[in-house]
Predict the structure.
Amino acid sequence: MNKRFLTLFLILPLLVCCNDKDNKKQDIDPMITITGETEFSIKAEGGTATFTVTSNVDWNSEIDVDWVALSPASGVASDKPVTVTLTCFQTPKLKKRTTDIAITGGGLRKFISVIQSGDPMAGAAEEIKSGATVLATNPLVEKFLTEVTYKDWPEEDNSTRATRIFDYYGGFDGVNLTWDNWGTEWPDGDIPCHYSIRWKQEDIESGVMNLHLEDKLGWKGDQEIEAGSLYVNIKNLVPNDNYTYRVTAKSGKVLAEGNFSTTGHLHQVYFLGDPQKPNVKGGGGRNARDFGGWKTLDGKTIKYRKVYRGGRLNEKWTPYPLNAQGEKEVLFEGLGAELDLRGNDDVMFEPAVAGLDHCAPVIEQGGVTMLKNDAAKTKQCFEFVVNSVRNNKPIYFHCSLGRDRTGTLFILLMGVLGVREGDIAKEYELTYFAPVGYSVSSSDKKSNKIPTFHNTRLAWVYSDVTPYFWEFAQQTTGKTFKEGVEKYLLEVAGVSQQDIDDFRTMMLE
């Protein structure tokens, strides 16, 4: 017999046999069996649970959330049950959360449900108790303000003039904070200390609650608290102040009350926002602070809650910096006016929060260019600030980032009030502690391989504006920075002496 035919004769039964096995395999009905619980209730702190999967087809799992994981997450066809461990991570949310996990294979889908309790203390800051004394200013900023003293510009020559800001942790120095870790390890030095007032579960009644907070300076505010909450966070505290607080139920029952004191050098403010573009860590009203608390050369002190400087509160591109809670926080702080110093590309002609008085003169560039070429608009800015204070409407002024145009107006206003120029330099440099999108010259990694914080007293706006005002000072009797700024306002910007005098009277004590 031909060998080829013999070979075919011998393997033909094998082919038929194999084909029969394949047909039998294809004829098997897919089956997935889950043994044990199919609905798990997990506590807020997280936990684990198990169930078994028996499947005659390869199987996989589908999970749409990042707070639950399975191990193993898939398996191969087998008549032996596979034990699956479900891990649920601790929740950062007040309310419960749920998800369904699908076990799929062979066209089948079986479901596991996970329900996790909310954590009534999720998001709570450090507790503050009646009688406590707490730091209001961010500790990174507080350390810098406490330890650094700058001489006034004319008292230094080029060989001794320096900045100390890079000696302090908290800003983009290219060493402690770099492109490699800025997105995860940024310390948020521009955000003031947060604290929580707490009460007992057994004292809670149905309905929303209310926080009433007031201080010795005459400020007071009321904040609604979500029903069922066990705490309320407070922030944006004025340093060296005394506060009283009261939390009441809808019925009027007092859940918590007491008093506390604050320390610090600076009244920083932060208004809540949603996460922003990838090149800016965190949203909200950033790089923002009050003028209050700084001393003048004649021994007076700038009043708190009159004038604030900061970064943008709204923008043309979504998402907006402030969320709904942030807008409420602006009003809780007591702001009544907004001065937008941005140029044509990004200026907004309506307030970030409904109800604020608003002014937008459209300024394209800060520094001496703003003071000279836009002298009329600088006058408009000054008069809007003065009138806002006159009308008892605390004003927040900003450009986009709170650095250059904002820095220019800040130097002018602090200068005309009589703050020592070396102290103005310290405050000006605090933008260093704000996130990358505000502090470094560019947050574009491609064009800015080695990002640098430029807004020191030695560069950019400060080194441009300050010598300009000192030139005017040399033409005055006392040759002080205060007199130099006043001379500019009178002779170049055309501001009235009455507005200057009234501003000092209203702002100083």
Observations:
- The first helix runs from residue 3 to 27.
